[in-house]
Structure formats: structure tokens, C-alpha cells
Amino acid sequence: MATQEPDDKLISTEVSADETVRNERPDETVLAAKDLDVYYGEDRAIDDVSIEIPENKVTALIGPSGCGKSTFLRCINRMNDQIDVCRVDGDVVFKGKNVYDGDVDPVALRRKIGMVFQKPNPFPKSIRENVTYGLEVQGKPATEGDVERALRGAALYEEVHDKLDTSGLDLSGGQQQRLCIARAIAPDPEVILMDEPTSALDPVAASKIEDLIDTLVEEYTVIIVTHNMQQAARISDKTAVFLTGGELVEFDDTATIFENPADSRVEDYITGKFG
Amino acid sequence: MSTDTDPEITSADGRVAADQRRDRLVQGGLFLCISFTLLTTLAIFWVLFNEATHFFFDGRFSDVVVSLLTGESVSQRITFVEFFAGERWDVTHSINPGYWVGPLVWGTFLITVGAAFVSIPIGTLTALYLSEYASQDVRKYLKPGLEILAGIPTIVYGFFAISFITPWLIRPAAELLGVQTRSANVAAGAIVVGIMTIPIVASISEDAMSSVPDDLRNGAYALGATKFDVSLGVVLPASVSGVFAAYILAISRAIGETMAVTIAAGFTPQIAFSPFVEIQTMTAYMVDAVRGEAVVGSIRYQSLFAVGLLLFIITLVMNLLNNKLKERYREEYR
Ligand SMILES: Nc1ncnc2c1ncn2[C@@H]1O[C@H](COP(=O)(O)OP(=O)(O)OP(=O)(O)O)[C@@H](O)[C@H]1O
Ligand SMILES: [Mg+2]
User: Fold this and answer.
1) What is the model's pLDDT at position B5?
2) The pLDDT of residue A203 is above 50
3) For a substitution probing ligand 1, which of A37, A70, A74 has the most ligand atoms within 8 Å of its CB?
4) What is the chain A residue with the closest CA to B132?
5) Mean per-residue pLDDT over chain B, rounded
6) Distance A64 CA to ligand 2 centre (A)
7) CATH architecture of B98-332
8) Domain boundaries, chain B
9) What distance lies between CA A10 and its chain's CA centroid?
10) What is the ipTM of this complex?
11) Distance, CA A210 to ligand 1 centroid (Å)?
12) Which residues contact A174 (CB under 8 A, 6 or more apart)?
């Protein structure tokens, strides 16, 4: 795999400084899956996964294509409810509450757990309206301050503050993705799910998002799916490796996964022997 | 050329040439079909313009055009001022006929606006239901159902209006308000034309809504939006030009609608402001004029084409508008 020399250095120094601070805090589980199975019709996409995801950390989900990373992510905020054939078995516990309990409202849940998608998908509305949409549907009036805070949080404010009323679609791909991040953090969720948020972006735009994730994690718990090993190694505290069949093979500190994995299949996957 | 030319890429064996001859034959056949349609359209145009010229100028289209081109003065029998801003419409009056098209245009306008109040809300909500709420199975049966509704002969709708809408809806409403109504009235015409155009609004709007990418919906759902939020706040705005195209198509259908509106709204040309009175639309006048009384060449006969030409121009403008909007919504998502 090709590495981006200049970016690499910049980020790895930054990350290591942050990581020492972050790692001093004890892990507090905010999200956990217990014996989770997911089926699409008859096909099993997630196979008996149990995992505990720590608060205010970046957890990376890696694994070969089709191993169920996106499926797992969509279970957390119940976006899988949108797919008719999808069936979930087992528990996903968010702050002590199983999100699949009968009394959980998926709409309310998604207001606590934001999501950023692989392809930037801003609404065909103004930048401001994109940012305020989440607050609006929750019936909370959005102030100028909310807009600025979210855009600053997504490191986009400087670039767009003088054109908040132009269409979100007029931004570059990388800016659009940061707008989507601003949109996700505006309602102040607790967890942000990201499904390959940089795979549609060029390296510079991608590294901006990586930097951003580093600051986001001070306030939010970030769970990120990525195909890019270097990215996972650079930005995450914990790494979960899924393998074909939807099995969670190993979950540990990122350093351990990349330097000293317990499972030989993980080592094979990381060193590029398959996947 | 050398003798070892590869026969595969020449027509040496004659097969390719035969293929091409067949191709040219097919092409010619297709061209004939196109020409037939084209010629018919041209013939219609010619009749329309020629008879309308007779109505206004009392002369042949070609003569009038030649006179106009050579700068000769042409006398108008019925002036455009009279036609567009006269006093009344009464072509058959033996002493003092009136040629103001206003009452007919007003009748068409009332029916069209009234129909839009029925078809636009119901059609749009139906489209939103089909594209956002209905399960795949429901959609599978409902959409063809809509198309069946669109295929019912319009005269059936006309009888539906006089045998159901008027006696069961309009008459009780009129009685409640203490006003008179007739078996043909504006309200019945507007409602029945509205019902007829619901399938147009619903079906074309639904196409526009389903072409909104799921990415957008997911983005909204992930922010904690409800189905209602997504339908009205994301899908409808994102498909707005397609939905407007549907409205315009429905409206131009309503303008051109003939059979049902003739039966339901009647034959009395007048500028009226009550939904319970009988009026006459442009199309209904044309039906009226050809009911055997208009002698070919008479002014009544020619007035048919003057009104027809106006109707044609109005619907042409609507269709051009519709095409513009359709182009826009095709460009929106690629
Ligand atoms: N909407 C769906 N309907 C049916 N099957 C699906 C659906 N989405 C995913 N699957 C199946 O579930 C399995 C896991 O898919 P998923 O998208 O979660 O994989 P992934 O790890 O995210 O892959 P990638 O890295 O390519 O994005 C695959 O076998 C896929 O075919
Ligand atoms: Mg995926």
C-alpha cells in the first residue's frame, strides 16, 4: 500500500501526543453489542459479535469488503430498520439500554447517535440549512451560534462563513464531507458513526478529516469504518477486525492489533496477505 | 490493392452489402411512418390556421399572409380587440352577434383552477405516500391502479359527474347554502376534471420523488428525522421541478379536457363567480358548434377554429413550460 510521506509524519506525531493524554483516562463503555447476529433474508451478515466500545475514543472497524462493517455500524443507530429484509438478533446496548427494546424510538436514538456516510450527501439546501436540519427536526430552534459552533467543530467555518446561504452542493467533495460532519455534530450527539468517510476524497481532504476526528473525540465517541490500514493506525485508539462471514476476530488497542495481533488471520489481513 | 485483402472487412462476398440494403430499407420504412405523422400534424395546422384566418379576415390564409408581406392593408371582419376584449359571446345571434371569447376562457379558467385544487393536493400526497410510505407490495398494485383510473374514457367521468357528483355533493351543498343549482355546474366540472387528473399528478410526481437518491433520505433519517420530515422536508423539495412538471401537465390536460367537462359544466357562456351555475368552456363550445348546426363556411363554423387556435396556443405554452421543467429535473441528479 502506498503511504503519503508528508501527511504521515504530521499526523503520527500529533496522534501520539493525543493518545498519551487519552489513554490516561480509564475506559468507560458507552456502547456494547452482545451476541449480535444480523441477517439479510436468509444470509447472515453479522455472526455473534460482542464488543464494548469505549467513550471518547476512536474505534476503528476494519476488515475485507463484505464482512459486515457497514451492517454493524447501521445496527448501532438502527438505520437497518430502513432495509425491509434486514433482521437483527441480540443486543446493542447504548448507555445501559438495549436499543432494540420495544420502547426505544429509533428516531430518538438517531438524535443521540449521528452518522457520516461514505459519499458526502449534503441536502440540496443552503449551508446554513444543512447544519440546522438536525436541530430543526428535533424542534429545537437553531441560533447563529449553533451554526458557527458546528461549522467550527467540523473545521469548515473559515472556508464558508461568508457564504452560508449558498447551496451545500456548491462545495468541494472534502468540504461537503466536513459539512456533513458539521450537520452530524450540530444537534450535539454522543456518538458519531462514520462509514468510510474519506474513501471518496483526495488525500489532502482526507487528512483534514483525520485531523478533525482527532479533535472530535474530545467531545464525542467516534466509530469509524475504514479500508485504509494506515488511517486506522493513525487515528484510532481501538481497532476491531471483522473477517468474511461477519465474525469479529479481534478487538484490542490499535497498537496491539497492528504490532502484535493475537490471531494469525488478523496478521495476515493487516500485512495484506488477503482481503 | 493486394490480392490477399482480408474478406472479413470488405463486402467481397456480398453479404455486407445485402445487410446494408436491408438496413436502408428499414430506414426508409421508418421515415415513411414519421412522415405520415408529420404530414397529419401539418395538415391539422393548416386547417386550423386557414379557418381561423377566415374567421378573423374573411379570406384565405395564403392570401392574407401574402397581403401582409407585400404591405397591402388587410381588413379584419372580426377584430382582435373584439375577440379578446369585446362584450359578449353570442356567435349565432341574428342581429347583433358578439365575438368576445372571454366567457369561454373564463369557463375554462374556472374549471382548470378548481380542478387544480382537487388534483394537486390529492395527487401530491398520493405520490408521497407511494414513494415514501407504501411498502413495495402496495406500490406494485397501486401504481397500475392509478393508470387504470387514467384509462377510463372521459365520457364516463362526465356521466359520473351528473349522476353522482351533482346530485350527491353539489346539490346538497347548494341547498345548505340556500342557492339554486343546475344539473350542469362549475363545481361538478371542476371536481370531475380534478379527479381525472389526479393520476397524472400522482404518477409523474412519484417518478420524480423516487429518483431522489436514497443518500439524501438516509442523511436525514440519520439525523433523527421522521418519515414525515423526510417526505416534506427532503424528498418534496428535492423533486420540486419534476413535481411542478406534473402539475403543469395536469393543468394543460384540464384545459384541453372536453367530454367530461361538456357534460358536467354545460353550455352557457358567461362570466360567473358562483360554483353552482352553468358555464361553458372553450372545449365545450367547440363540441356545441359541431353538433350539426354549424354549416361549413359559416362564421359559427369558423369560430370553432379561432377558439381552437387559442386553445392550441395556451396548451402549447404549457407544454413548453413542462419540457423546460423536465429538463431541469433530469439535470438535478446525475
Ligand atoms: N441492503 C442489503 N440487502 C441485502 N444484503 C445486504 C445489504 N447490505 C449488505 N448486504 C450484505 O451483507 C453483507 C455485509 O455487507 P456490508 O455492506 O455490511 O459489508 P462491508 O463490510 O461494509 O463491505 P464494504 O467494505 O465493501 O463496504 C454482504 O454480504 C452484503 O452483500
Ligand atoms: Mg461498507
Assistant:
1) 58
2) yes
3) A70
4) A82
5) 89
6) 10
7) Orthogonal Bundle (1.10)
8) 14-77, 98-332
9) 22
10) 0.86
11) 25
12) A201, A202, A204, A205, A206, A208, A209
